[in-house]
Backbone:
């Protein structure tokens, strides 16, 4: 009886984390639309005066501040869901838990860097009357951190793919196609690392590869992963007889 109660508590906790994902996703999407620098990505070629004017604009300033505050509140909200993936990795048949440990290390890095970018945008908006060159510096710090620091995200996808490939069970915990998808995601994210080398073109922080492909790949990864982990959990609960 105690074991059954423990299993059902585990089910409740996992499903709660799973169903929190679409709510968090909607909040992120609204905050994304709320930040005027995302809907039409700011160009790295803008002069210091133009960047300062963007932050001093009475229509932009409150949107920048409030959208970044929302991101600050919910920017780390993906970590519990990522930990749910790590728990599934622990179920895989490996000789060592090292893959799940590597994945856990990576999921701590991505949200941290996102929060740092969030902080730099808030600092740029904190004193919009300051010297334009300083506002431009904080703006550069925000965009470069947000765009180019994809190492944790790439490694996260690669470690997850390797864990799936190396799962020696007849019926893998996560499907093989999902491992292929993670490798494709890593490939899509990798070019953004070169955003520090370009002021215009597809590699610039507002460019096709560094902004649009990268962010669409992240959004698609979250959606696909949500459905994949959800179907896996429900299958496991049916097999264990603990589905609610």
Residues:
């Amino acid at each position: 009886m105690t074991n059954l109660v423990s299993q059902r508590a585990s089910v409740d906790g996992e499903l709660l984390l799973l169903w929190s994902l679409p709510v968090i996703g909607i909040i992120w999407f609204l905050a994304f639309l709320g930040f005027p620098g995302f809907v039409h990505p700011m160009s790295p070629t803008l002069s210091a005066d133009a960047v300062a004017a963007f932050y001093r604009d009475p229509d932009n300033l409150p949107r920048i501040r409030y959208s970044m505050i929302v991101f600050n509140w919910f920017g780390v909200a993906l970590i519990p869901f990522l930990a749910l993936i790590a728990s599934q990795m622990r179920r895989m048949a490996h000789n060592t838990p090292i893959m799940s440990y590597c994945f856990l290390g990576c999921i701590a890095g991505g949200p941290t860097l996102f929060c740092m970018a969030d902080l730099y945008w808030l600092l740029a908006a904190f004193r919009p009357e300051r010297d334009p060159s300083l506002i431009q510096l904080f703006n550069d710090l925000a965009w470069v951190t947000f765009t180019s620091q994809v190492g944790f995200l790439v490694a996260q996808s690669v470690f997850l793919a390797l864990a799936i490939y190396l799962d020696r069970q007849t019926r893998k915990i996560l499907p093989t196609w999902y491992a292929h998808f993670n490798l494709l995601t890593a490939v899509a994210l990798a070019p953004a690392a070169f955003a520090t080398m370009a002021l215009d073109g597809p590699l610039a922080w507002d460019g096709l590869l560094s902004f649009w492909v990268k962010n669409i790949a992240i959004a698609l990864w979250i959606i696909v992963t949500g459905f994949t982990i959800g179907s896996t959990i429900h299958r496991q609960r049916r097999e264990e007889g603990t589905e609610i």
Notes: The CA atoms of residues 55 and 125 lie 6 Å apart. The mean pLDDT is 88. Residues 2-34 form the longest helix (33 residues).
